[in-house]
Amino acid sequence: DTGVSQDPRHKITKRGQNVTFRCDPISEHNRLYWYRQTLGQGPEFLTYFQNEAQLEKSRLLSDRFSAERPKGSFSTLEIQRTEQGDSAMYLCASSPRSTNEKLFFGSGTQLSVL
Amino acid sequence: GQSLEQPSEVTAVEGAIVQINCTYQTSGFYGLSWYQQHDGGAPTFLSYNALDGLEETGRFSSFLSRSDSYGYLLLQELQMKDSASYFCAVRPSNSGGYQKVTFGTGTKLQVIP
Q1: Which terminus of chain A has fewer Cβ atoms in its 10 Å neighbourhood, N or C?
Q2: In order along chain A (114 residues), what is the average pLDDT of each group of 10 residues?
């Protein structure tokens, strides 16, 4: 198992464009999280899935943001009509059934909106 | 809601001991976790305190005091590779937010020769 993988590692886009990121969690993990991190800050919670169900969603997640985990395996995070304020590192994490106290993070997707 | 405060930067000498503090305001949580993040890398889990007291894992120890709303991470025998950012985190026990793990502001540790 190679851990949580995210694709792409870097994304540069123009303001107003849509972007989509993918996360592949550790295979036996049923819990999946999306976080956003800006320089010098801690990760901020965006949303949480248990299997395919999206059970929690932050108020930070505006209507332009949507996340899916259609088969309870990989997940996608889409940002529509990107704004410069969306520039950040988008981190995905997963955790197993046995514990939700230890999150395993991917290396993230660095988004730059020009 | 939850609020976790940490010193922004700490510098320590290789081989020494350093303590990184975390003070929090939260209405209730299951436990306090610590994560390490190297520049450009992913946060990695270090330790978890469900109960008050000290937890030891090799060179790293973590402490929690719920009565003082305070915790810390202790790093011993510092190595250059310990230079990284360190985050404390809590998972709330209030309804509607069980999985919203909230991270602190982070402490950038610089280990110098």
Answers
A1: N
A2: 90 98 94 94 93 88 92 94 97 87 94 97
